[in-house]
Automatic annotation (TrEMBL):
CDD domains: STKc_16. This is non-specific serine/threonine protein kinase. The lineage of its organism: Eukaryota, Metazoa, Ecdysozoa, Arthropoda, Hexapoda. Its EC number is 2.7.11.1. It comes from Aquatica leii. The keyword Ribonucleoprotein does not apply.
Amino acid sequence: MGCFCSREIVYVNNTRYIVKERLGEGGFSTIDLVENAVTKRCYAVKRIICHSIDDQKVALQEIEYYRKLKHPNIIELIDSTFKGSADIVVNATSEVYMVLPYYRRGTLHDYLDSHSINKDYLSISEVLRIFTDICSAVKYMHELKPESLAHRDLKTANVCLTDGLSPILMDLGSVAPAKVQVCGSQDAQKLQDLAAERCSMPYRAPELFNVKSFCVVDERTDIWSLGCVFYAMCYFKSPFDAVYERGDSVALAVMSGKINFPEETPFSQEVHELILFMLNESPTERPFINDVIEKVQDLKMRLEDKV
């Protein structure tokens, strides 16, 4: 957490915010906890630094997705503004500011981290409750008209939690049209590079590590990521986090299709089968979101019958 000795002030469309602390930062963006100077309410402000026209287009597209996606389990955009030249000259930069709700509980990643210290496993009923709401948000994106969308970076760190522990999907910077027609090696390399930049490695679908020259990549990249999220909700980390932390090849581990489960586990074989259902390395055989939701509901009903 960063501490600011002098009180930095940020203006977004004439609303004055006092920066309280740094919540996170990436390559070209930062997220600060801010306080509205008048109402004293806290928000998160995402600040993206743009070094080119292309950077600007990506940032402004993210704002458009925030405005387009209206779902109780997808983060809402409170306000936004653009500062700087719309026509970037050499060595000049511009900035995009987004005001977002602040969730004091943090992310699902934080929540799982706090439970992992003493191997305090979540109950399967809590896992299914949270996961059902995440699936609801993903279904909404996948079935959006006129063009379906994929999140492309689903992971526990991109799910905020409300005070009532309801999940909220955030970070729409990686969102893209769900279906991508790849026509040739140039298209394939472009998509592969984009995935390397925007999709977190331990949650990235196998078809995005080695994009084929002639293929269609669709919304089922998100289903793979959901499988990794579900696994993490059971065992605190993605099935590929350990590989990543060791410095071994995540790409090889992902494309091998081999998923290892801990020998000692509080979760049933049915739970593992649901995870494997989503983690099908073949993108054409992987289920769609409605298939996943149906399996989750079946598992819920079977567990209720046992009680």
